[in-house]
Amino acid sequence: MSFEYKRADWHFFARWVRNTLVGYLLGFVFIILGSIAGDLIGMPGSDFIIGIGMGAGVGYAQGRIARQWLGTIWPWMWATVIGLGAPLLVEDLIAVAWSEFDSLHSLQLDIAICGLFVGLLQRYILRSHSNRANWWVPVSIAGWTLAAWTASVTFTGEWDAILNLGMILMGGVVLGVVTGGALIWVLRR
Fold it and tell me: Rounded to whole angstroms, how far apart are CA atoms 177 and 162?
């Protein structure tokens, strides 16, 4: 591989990680706004709001980078919003009908399922650009699950608030590193 390809790959990777982190932060803003709206309309604590908020933030930010081969950001963004939102909407509906459901599921499993759906929808977008698009599904599952796991690590002690905030933000970096590295490989012909 030539130096120019490596440099282009590194530049793409760095932009992808940065945009994923920015999208992750934007997702938190959307979640907060969505939670306020949810409280106002009588849907407090909805996981669906978390899914669509994070999906909109990350999907939009990643879509801005994906635009270079897709021509538009919207398919990538909507695949992320739907992939994260739909499974959590189903979970919310099940929890309404079956109150014991809340004690049976875990954040990592929920996000792994969301990662599967995001991966399947984004794979559909990637398949016309790469014959390696099927690999995107396990990458998406791994990226989203590791991001959720990283964000759920908590510390106790003198600096716990700063360390916990750092781990939450690190989830966005982990998601960007896992998916960005794999995306370079998937799109390389």
Answer: 22
